[in-house]
């Protein structure tokens, strides 16, 4: 079967790889759609020192089941969680399944293929069935779960003013949820030039767009009195900027990750202390909220269809992803489609 591989800096290729035998608790999935995400881009940009398969935002059809699989059947439409909690862990038994990060994990399986492939193997426990959605929408369930966790971590209240910092697909989904969570105003912040993302933010109800390379967020906060919540989907070094946009008692919810030197950043403790701020980490490991995400998509509370700016076939992955990465003005989400 064919599977796409990447290596930094921005090298992609499609390989012929062998399909291994199924374990009793696993299923073979024929991949129908897979999204290229921010984490994939970090790997491609600098973090992947050797060739590796990639892609974890995907959906497909169950093609074959292992001997002990009982919940899934051939033909089921599924999306795959990146990880799940261990129900026997102490934190899980104490009622905090969200704190257990040692359950089955798709990202660490070490197989020859991941989402950007013809077929992929996954444990039954990581598969979530869905119906009434397209495969493209199903491929958004993983990043939508990330956005849901970000919004829940921020604890948006009625009449809050909210700032979404970073208008990638997760930020744009979070913006839609913030808009419909009772926020009074929802602002969007993004470097200028990402025209398609900025247009989508306005379409989804942003009350204003701030260009972070042209406007100082501290000045923005001074002029408007600050915001109650900031949702950060941009790199970690923007968290300090987010704290300066907050009013007293504000909450900064963040999920951006980096590696190496980029994982470190500085904060002004006087700003946090003086304004009694909270800086909260959103981490969607284990992956939760897939059923809630299905409901949000079906209800039209979150619309992901306009986020797909580039579609391509598996065999075109190298050229298509390079084209997407170079198209900053129009690029929002690149998605591989297997017919």
TrEMBL record:
PROSITE patterns linked: ADH_ZINC
Domain of life: Bacteria
InterPro entries tied to this protein: ADH-like_C, ADH-like_N, ADH_Zn_CS, ER, GroES-like_sf, NAD(P)-bd_dom_sf, Zn_alcohol_dh
Ranges of residues in domain Enoyl reductase (ER): 7-336
Cofactor(s) this protein requires: Zn(2+)
Any matching Pfam family: ADH_zinc_N
Keywords for this protein: Metal-binding, Oxidoreductase, Zinc
Family: Belongs to the zinc-containing alcohol dehydrogenase family.
PANTHER family: L-THREONINE 3-DEHYDROGENASE
Protein name: Zinc-binding dehydrogenase
């Amino acid at each position: 079967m064919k599977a796409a591989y990447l290596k930094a800096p921005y090298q992609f290729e499609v390989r012929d790889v062998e399909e291994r035998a199924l374990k009793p608790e696993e299923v073979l999935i024929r991949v129908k759609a897979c999204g290229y995400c921010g984490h994939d881009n970090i790997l491609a940009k600098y973090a992947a020192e050797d060739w590796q398969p990639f892609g974890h935002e995907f959906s497909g059809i169950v093609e074959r089941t292992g001997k002990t699989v009982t919940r899934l059947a051939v033909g089921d439409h599924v999306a795959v969680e990146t990880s799940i909690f261990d129900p026997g862990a102490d934190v899980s038994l104490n009622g905090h399944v969200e704190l257990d990060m040692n359950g089955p994990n798709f990202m660490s399986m070490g197989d020859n293929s991941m989402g950007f492939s013809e077929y992929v193997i996954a444990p039954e426990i990581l598969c979530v069935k869905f119906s009434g959605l397209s495969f493209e929408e199903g491929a958004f369930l993983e990043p939508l779960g990330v956005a849901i966790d970000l919004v829940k971590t921020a604890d948006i209240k009625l009449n809050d003013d909210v700032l979404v910092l970073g208008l990638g697909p997760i930020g744009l989904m979070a913006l839609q949820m913030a808009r419909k969570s009772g926020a009074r105003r929802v602002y969007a912040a993004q470097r200028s030039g990402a025209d398609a993302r900025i247009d989508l933010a306005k379409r989804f109800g942003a009350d204003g767009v701030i260009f972070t390379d042209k406007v100082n967020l501290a000045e923005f906060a001074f002029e408007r009195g600050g915001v109650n919540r900031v949702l950060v989907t941009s790199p970690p070094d923007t968290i300090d900027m987010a704290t300066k946009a907050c009013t007293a008692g504000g909450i900064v919810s963040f999920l951006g990750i980096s590696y190496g030197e980029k994982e470190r950043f500085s904060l002004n403790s006087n700003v946090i202390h003086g304004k009694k701020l909270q800086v909260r980490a959103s981490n969607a490991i284990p992956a939760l909220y897939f059923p809630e995400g299905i409901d949000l998509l079906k209800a039209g509370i979150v619309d992901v269809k306009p986020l797909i700016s580039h579609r391509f076939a598996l065999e075109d992955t190298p050229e298509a992803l390079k084209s997407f990465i170079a198209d900053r003005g129009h690029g929002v989400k690149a998605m591989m489609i297997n017919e």
